[in-house]
From TrEMBL:
The keyword Transcription does not apply. Residues 3-73 form the Integrin alpha second immunoglobulin-like domain. GO terms for biological process: angiogenesis; cell adhesion mediated by integrin; cell-cell adhesion; cell-matrix adhesion; integrin-mediated signaling pathway. The gene is Itga2b_1. This is ITA2B protein. It is a single-pass type I membrane protein.
Length: 169
């Protein structure tokens, strides 16, 4: 039959120990299968696996049985990317032409700011996240979007794409 075990967490010699009493009496040569579900927190710096040391002790036998179980650690986090363009819609007049060689921003078009926010919706924390955004800067050999600058907030760093502010506007 199936029975629930009574388990108690303890700390022994700097290790966290969970002691489960199986009960008595058991007949000689009996086999018991135990399924345990463990919830472990604080695994951010544990690497890709955690090993549990298991020991089975009987009051009738002076020699405990030892085993170890290695379980892979996987962090799960749902990332959400939100984006916005300011202004949301931009229309250039059909007669508009850029001024070659000018360093004035308004001679190269209308400023459009694209803002992206990357949110971690959990349940785990994340680090070392890489976000790659591809922006179509040319169409038919002509500038479609002129990439002027790139900035971040919140402790992130960016690598400037090739061709960023190529005309030094």
């Amino acid at each position: 039959g199936q029975e629930k075990l009574s388990c108690n967490p303890k700390k022994e010699n700097g290790s966290h120990v969970v002691l489960c009493e199986l009960g008595n009496p058991m007949k000689a040569g009996a086999w018991i299968t135990v399924d345990m579900e463990l919830s472990v927190s604080g695994l951010e710096d544990m690497g890709d696996a955690i090993t549990f040391q298991l020991q089975l002790r009987s009051k009738n036998s002076p020699n405990p049985a030892n085993a170890s179980v290695t379980v892979p650690v996987e962090a799960q986090a749902v990332m959400e990317l939100r984006g916005n363009s300011l202004p949301a819609t931009t229309v250039l007049p059909t007669s508009w032409h850029s001024v070659e060689g000018s360093r004035r921003l308004e001679d190269h078009g209308i400023k459009v700011e694209h803002v992206y926010q990357l949110h971690n919706k959990g349940p785990s924390t994340v680090s070392g996240v890489t976000l790659r955004l591809t922006v179509p800067s040319q169409l038919g050999g002509r500038f479609l979007l002129y990439l002027l600058e790139l900035g971040t907030e919140g402790g992130m760093s960016c690598t400037n794409p090739p061709g960023l502010n190529a005309e030094q506007v």
